[in-house]
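Quick one, probably user error.
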């Protein structure tokens, strides 16, 4: 077995500013698993630095090199074959390993489909034509919103100007108001009151720090719009606590944050049993990973989700093939930095 790891830095054509950071450059990690002549690819797009509970790039790389890939190699040495893609959860050592394990899981899934000459649609038959969701920010001067069903609008505490209200109202479609862990209850209530008459406000997303479910539960009872948890959902146990507190009626499920698609499906299935609305989030992935996310969403999620292509300053980053249906384009891997080779 041969494993190769690349790093590729891509500038976003439309940067997005949140309360805590500006998303203008995204680092994508690409993993290639080559075993007995069959090759699988995976991708993860971690945050540049550790923030709001999500591990930064350096920590994700450390988990890959020191923990997850060595454990994968150990399994192959013992069992003489690669583990099934859905077993990758056994490789992780906690939430800090989730992004690393999601990268390995996707590569193993691609490998397994190619080895069996199967397609992603056979594994995840589409049940919905899942609508797309765009992300913009009131903290940016310009934005472009295409043909989407809903818009996540990033905001920060403070009074909304007349210009901000005008811009949100012009969206003319439902809005998720995303505070990215930056707000107090008073901040949320004030902005919701200002926006109520200018836009259809679908939900407020993650006003408080991850784990602050007590305040979320209190706010959820006071608001007349849904409260959604994003950064605060990184495990099945988190979902159990959210439900126990009554802290949200919506969830933003991000497979990479949960450790991959197998974990994400478990969370989605349980959330549906609890009558919670679920939408798929993302981390500004390349066209390659977004194609896979889109197939997953259409199989398991009916809510508008972050599955539209991410516009890059450079060209396309995916090429069609069998297996997952796509792979990182040759041009991307040629320009990327090879940062690890494991045998």
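Nope, works fine. Designed sequence:
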């Amino acid at each position: 077995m041969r494993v190769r790891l690349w790093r590729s830095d891509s500038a976003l054509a439309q940067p997005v500013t949140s309360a805590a950071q500006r998303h203008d450059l995204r680092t994508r990690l690409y993993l290639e698993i080559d075993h007995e002549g069959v090759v699988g690819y995976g991708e993860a797009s971690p945050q540049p630095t550790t923030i709001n509970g999500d591990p930064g790039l350096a920590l994700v790389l450390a988990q890959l090199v020191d923990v997850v890939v060595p454990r994968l190699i150990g399994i192959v040495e013992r069992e003489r074959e690669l583990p099934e893609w859905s077993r990758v959860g056994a490789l992780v050592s906690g939430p800090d390993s989730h992004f690393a394990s999601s990268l390995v899981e996707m590569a193993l899934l691609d490998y397994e489909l190619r080895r069996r000459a199967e397609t992603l649609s056979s594994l995840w038959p589409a049940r919905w034509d899942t609508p797309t969701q765009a992300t913009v920010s009131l903290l940016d001067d310009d934005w472009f919103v295409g043909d989407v069903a809903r818009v996540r609008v990033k905001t920060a505490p403070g009074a909304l100007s007349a210009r901000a209200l005008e811009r949100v109202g012009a969206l003319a479609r439902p809005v998720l108001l995303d505070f990215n862990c930056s707000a107090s209850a008073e901040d949320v209530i004030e902005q919701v009151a200002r926006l109520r008459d200018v836009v259809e406000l679908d939900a407020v997303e993650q006003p408080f720090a991850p784990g602050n479910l007590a305040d979320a539960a209190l706010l959820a009872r006071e608001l007349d719009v849904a409260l959604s948890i994003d950064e605060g959902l990184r495990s099945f146990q988190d979902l159990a606590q959210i439900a126990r507190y009554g802290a949200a009626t919506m969830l933003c499920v991000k497979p990479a944050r949960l450790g991959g698609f197998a974990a994400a499906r478990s969370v989605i299935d349980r959330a549906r049993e609890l009558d919670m609305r679920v939408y798929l989030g993302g981390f500004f992935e390349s066209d390659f990973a977004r194609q896979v996310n889109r197939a997953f969403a259409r199989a398991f999620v009916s809510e508008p989700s972050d599955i539209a292509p991410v516009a890059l300053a450079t060209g396309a980053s995916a090429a069609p093939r069998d297996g997952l249906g796509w792979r990182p384009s040759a041009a991307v891997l040629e320009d990327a930095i090879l940062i690890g080779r494991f045998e």
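The mean pLDDT is 94.
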